[in-house]
Amino acid sequence: MTVQNVPNTKFTKGVRWLAELYKNRQVDSVTAQTLNKLVDLEASRLRLQLEDMERLLADYEKQYGMSSAEFLRKYEAGKTDDRMDYVEWASLTKMSRSFRKTLTAISSEG
C-alpha cells in the first residue's frame, strides 16, 4: 500500500465532503459500507504497526531495565544521553502513544 505524502487538495476536500455526507446520513448503503471498510482497513494497518512497535519497545525495556513510560520521562527531562537507541526508543514510544490514541478514537466513534 502506498501512503500519499504530498497533500492532494482534491483528495482532502473529497474526504471531508464524504465525511459530511456520511455524518448527515446522505450516502447510500454501498458508499457507507465502503467508508466503514476503509476505516476498518486503516485501523487494522495501525494495529499491525503498533504490534511491531510494541515488540521493539519490549526489547528496549528488557535491555535497559525500565518501562517505556519511565524512560520517556527521563529522556524528556534530559536525564539520559542522546545515543541512537534512546532517540529511537523515545520516537517509538511517542508513535505508539499516537497510534493508540488514534485507535481509541476510531473505536469510540462507532
Describe, in plain words, how this protein is organized in 3D.
The chain is mainly α and 110 residues long. It has one domain (10-109). The protein has helices at residues 9-23, 29-64, 68-76, 84-109. The protein starts with 8 loop residues before the first helix and ends with a helix. 4% of the residues are buried. The mean pLDDT is 88.
What is the CA-CA span between the terminal residues? 25 Å
The number of helices is 4
| Percent of residues in β-strands | under 5%
Order of helices and strands: HHHH
Q: pLDDT under 50 segments (min length 5)?
A: none
**Radius of gyration over C-alpha positions, nearest whole angstrom:** 19 Å
Structural class: mainly alpha
Total domain modules: 1
What's the multimeric state? single chain
**Largest β sheet strand count, sense and barrel closure:** none
Arithmetic mean of pLDDT: 88
How many β-strand stretches?
Answer: 0
